[in-house]
Amino acid sequence: MTPTTTTDTAPAIEDTTADHVADRAAIEAVIADVETGFNTKDPALSVAHFARNATAVTVGGARSSGLDALLAAHRSAFAGPLRDQYARYDVLDVVFLRPDVALAHKGARAVEADGTPIDVGHAMVALYVLVKERRRWWIVSRQNTLVAS
What we know:
The mean pLDDT is 95. The chain has a single domain, classed as Roll (Nuclear Transport Factor 2, Chain: A). It contains three helices and six strands, in the order H-H-E-E-H-E-E-E-E. The radius of gyration is 17 Å and the shape is globular. By secondary structure, the chain is of the alpha+beta class.
């Protein structure tokens, strides 16, 4: 028999036992570093907050797993197709599933190198899965999705 889930029976999974103000600020700082790495074409900064066994999926569906592979993918992208692209990131929301597990959604818009917004016909939404380990937040997974603007 297949179980039936309804809004009455499905749990709402969210940690409400702690004040996450500092955690949210730390996660926003992680994503800001990723943005700075992207805009300065710094592969090491772009992956500085990824766990060693992290996985990321690009807007084109390419999947990289492991810190070395992520670093190589960023080096290649910054030297190639992303060489002249810049973006502004906005943290759209952060949900704490557990005190040490969070989901963050990021919106990204194309900008000129000086930060002036430009319309390129699309934007991006990214889902980050983060885990707090050794008193800091680590990205364990990121999925980028292209959306029409």
